[in-house]
Amino acid sequence: MKKAVILVSGGLDSATVLAIAREQCFETYALSFDYGQRHRSELVASANVAKAIGAAEHRVFKLDLTGWGGSALTDATIAVPTSSVPTEPSAGIPVTYVPARNTIFLSLALAWAETLGAIDIFAGMNAVDYSGYPDCRPDYIAAFQAMARLATKSGVEGGAITIHTPIIKMSKADIVREGTRLNVDYAMTVSCYQADANGLACGVCDSCRLRREGFAAAGVVDPTRYG
Amino acid sequence: MKKAVILVSGGLDSATVLAIAREQCFETYALSFDYGQRHRSELVASANVAKAIGAAEHRVFKLDLTGWGGSALTDATIAVPTSSVPTEPSAGIPVTYVPARNTIFLSLALAWAETLGAIDIFAGMNAVDYSGYPDCRPDYIAAFQAMARLATKSGVEGGAITIHTPIIKMSKADIVREGTRLNVDYAMTVSCYQADANGLACGVCDSCRLRREGFAAAGVVDPTRYG
C-alpha cells in the first residue's frame, strides 16, 4: 500500500479529501497543526476525523504562527468577518488569510512524507470558495509541486512528488455530495472560524455561511452543531 | 530603508550573508530556528552575530523537527560524519541532510517577510560545499522564489518577492574573504555540527573541515574556538 500524507484541519473539506485518499487505497498519515488558531476545537475534530476515516496515524505539529500577526485567525485584535459583511473574492484577500500558511503546512507535510518514504501529499485547498486566498489556487499548487521535486532527497532520487488537491475546483455542494457518497460523518467536522471549545459553530462567519449553503445546494441535511 | 528577512544560523556562511544584506542597505530582520538540532550553541551564536552585524531584530522560531527523524543533525542515533570518512558530493545526499529543512525555513521567512511588508529574503545556501543537499542548489532556490510569488498576498499584490542567495556559488575561501572585507568577526560564529554547549567546535566533522580549509585557502587566520 502506498503511503500518503494528508493535511487534516478537522473541517469539512479536508475530511472529504482524507476519504478520497482512502478510496484511492493510500495508507494515510494525517497531519494537523496547532498554530495558535482561534478555532482550537478543530484539533479535537481532526483527531476524530482521522480515526473515523481510518488514518494509519494522526500527528499534531505544534508551531506558533501568532507571533507574526496579520490575520484574523491568529490575532485576537482582528475581528472574524461574518455573513453580514461577506468577504467576496472581489474584495481582495480576506483578513482570515494567514501569511504563507499553506506553504508552511505543505513544507512540513513534505518533511514527514520524505521520512515516511511517501511521495504523495493530499490537501484540501479550494479555489472556488477561497479564490481570494493566493495559496489556494491551482497555479500556486503546481509551483509548490515543482519546487518540492527539486527540494528533497525523494524528489531528486526519482520519485515524482505529487501534491493532490482533489477538491480544488469543486463547489461546496460538490464536496458535500462527494463526502456523502464516501460516508463521511460531517457531524464530527468543524469548519467555523470561531467555534467554541465544544466545537459548536457560530453560524455567521464566512466559513459557516459557505458550509451551510453547500449542504442546502447539495440537498443534504446539515448536521452541523451550531452554538 | 527596505526591510529584508535574513536566515541566520550562527555559522560562518549566514553571518557573511547578513553582512552583505547590511552593505546593500537593507534593514535586516534575522530569523533563527530552534528545531531540535544537536548544535544548540548556534542559537547563542546567532544572537551574537545578529547584534554585532546590526540586525534591527532577531527572532528565534521554535519548531520541533526531531519527530520526523532521518537526519544526523536531529537524530541522536545517527552519527555525525567526520573528516576520516568525508562526505563527498559523489556519495549522494549526506546523512546530515534534514528533510525539507530549507523549504520549511524559507516558508517561515516568507511569512515573517509578509507581515513586515518585506519582499526580500536572504539565505546562506551554498551549492559548492553542499552540492549533495538538494535544497542548496540554484534551481531549487529559483523554484522556491517562483512559488513564493504565487503563494502570498505581497506576491499577488505586485511585489516581486526575491530570494537572495549571494554566496551560493562561492567557495568557502571566497566567503571568508568577502566576510573579512565586511569586518565579520568569525570568532563569534559556530559552524560545527556538534559544537559543545560553549560553542567550541569538534574540529573533525565535515562542517569543521570545510571551514578550516576555507580559512587556509583564503590566507586568513582561523579564529575558530576548537574544543
Give an overview of the whole structure.
Two copies of one chain form a homodimer. The first copy, chain A, is of the alpha/beta class and 227 residues long. Chain A has one domain (3-218): HUPs (Rossmann fold), CATH 3.40.50.620. Chain A is 36% helix and 11% strand. The first copy, chain A, has a five-stranded parallel sheet, sandwiched between helices. In chain A, helix 1 links the parallel strand 1 and strand 2. In chain A, helix 1 runs parallel beside helix 2 (41-53). Chain A starts with a strand and ends in a 9-residue tail after the last helix. Mean pLDDT of chain A is 88; it is low at 84-90. At the A-B interface, strand 3, helix 3, helix 4 and helix 5 of A face strand 3, helix 3, helix 4 and helix 5 of B.
CATH superfamily of chain A: HUPs
Rg of chain A, Å, rounded: 17 Å
Q: What is the molecular shape of chain A?
A: globular
* CATH level 1 class label of chain A: Alpha Beta
The major β-sheet of chain A equals: 5 strands, parallel
Query: Number of helix segments of chain A?
Result: 7
Oligomeric status of the shown chains? homodimer
Q: What is the percentage of strand-forming residues of chain A?
A: 5-15%
How many individual β-strands of chain A?
Answer: 5
Q: CATH fold name of chain A, please? A: Rossmann fold
- Low-pLDDT runs of chain A: 84-90
Tell me, rounded to a whole number, the average pLDDT of chain A. Answer: 88
Reading the helices and strands of chain A in chain order gives EHEHEHEHHEHH
CATH architecture type of chain A: 3-Layer(aba) Sandwich
Number of domains of chain A: 1
What is the strand arrangement across the widest sheet of chain A? 3-2-1-4-5
The biggest chain-chain interface is:
A-B, 43 and 43 residues
How far do the termini of chain A sit from each other? 41 Å
